[in-house]
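hiii, so i know i said id send this last week but things got crazy w the move. better late than never?? heres the sequnce for the chain we talked about at the cafe, plus the structure i predicted for it. fair warning i was half asleep when i ran it
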Amino acid sequence: MKRSTPEWELYERMIAQMIANQSSTNYCVTPNARLVGRISGRSRQIDVLIDLRHDTDNSERIIVDAKKRNRKIGVTEVEAFRGLMEDVGASHGILVSPSGYTQSAEKRAQATVSIRLVPLDRLMDFDPSTWPKCKAKNCKNGRIFWDGYPELSMPPITLRKSGLVQSHDKPFVHYVGKCDRCGKFHVQCLTCGELFSVDESNEDDFGQQCRCKPLWFWIASIEEDEQGFQSAELHVVFLNTGKIITTDRRSLQ
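okay and structure toks below
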């Protein structure tokens, strides 16, 4: 991102990064998400979306609205947010503001909405322009938001060299995340440093590997939960066992 990025957008990205840093690895975080409303049928913009990472299950969905404004959050904002939660099937919601909230807003929030105070001075040390650029085609100004760090281990390998036999277990750590503009998944191997995007809409994609050529590959797909709601999912597939692990998700409905 350039320094001309609106401050409200920087605030949203900062809140997303804070949540990703504090969340359990069982959850994945998507900034600037788009969901089709189940009641309205309209595309709804979500500042920060939190979903289960490893399962096609949207029953524990949490949405976050980061309101960068000078006045306190009032009861009207809480009621509108509760309507958004109902439309996108969120079980809980978080309203974030640098200016606090009124007593009536706190009463209206009840158990399903949390209201948090995050001051603007936190932005002083936040610079999303340092995030890697999106590798997806036709994406402009997108930056990669990392929200997971899976460590994958290669099974023991036996090497015969100069008459010596060596067996060792080699770990590979990867970053997984998605673009904060187009939402495409990205993977980076920390062993060789290669960074690539994985497109869930490309049916001809038979999987990608980094230069290390480990015993697994990455592929993305569109999946449905039990209610028929769709999610884009990033998977790692192990060549030796056929085991598949979902490492990241981006809900679509």
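btw The mean pLDDT is 89. thought thatd interest u
miss u guys!!
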